[in-house]
Amino acid sequence: MSDPELMPTLDRPRIRREVWIVLGLSLGQSALYSIVAIIGRLTAPTKLSSQTATLNSSQSTQSLLDLTYQLMGIFFALMPVLLALYLLSGPGHSAMRLLGFDWRGRRTAGADVLQGVVLAALIGIPGLAFYYLAVALNINATVVPTALNTHWWTLPILILAAIQNAVLEEVVVVGYLFTRLRQLGASRWAMYAASSLLRGSYHLYQGFGGFLGNIVMGLVFCFWYERRGRVMPLVVAHSILDIAAFVGYALFKDLLT
User: What is the pTM of this model?
Assistant: First the structure.
């Protein structure tokens, strides 16, 4: 795991306040919106599996204006990552090194990519089967990975959006949260529970299948991070999963719908 000597020393009340602020500005906020969204879905007249959850949608009918909105959305979604890294940094302390969110050479980069591919396969194949089962059982909405209009920039934006999701979630929900909870003296299982339940909660807008599936994914990622001490393989794995979903759907949606 991360080297405790690299962690800036802060008093516990300050750490608690900081964690609430970071989560309130990022995925904790998403979790609350997601809880309200699932209440709305459950109280709607149509059954859950007949409803759709769209992940990427157009913001304008004008191509360049839509592109501008998409790039701004990606840029500002990464601000909590920069905030978390800034807060973990200090004189002589590299937050990116602390979390393993760096590549220190070809060997490290190769190992991170290989581990990421393994994790993506481990999560992606069973996860896809579980999604279809959840929809069939009416506990999940039908997920539409992208409803972006077709432009020359559509696929690059979907790839950037996938990477943005991966960086935001893995740096904040695993790397940052684990670091701060460890400083607060949380147990191993408390850290696993907090990280995984948070991950599941901000996917509740998709339904209970998305909630449960992401809890399982979170537990696997927590275990891997605790053993390896590097968040980069998780970012690689998450990027692969989202790129496959977003780009694959964009390319083959006529066959899938």
Answer: 0.91
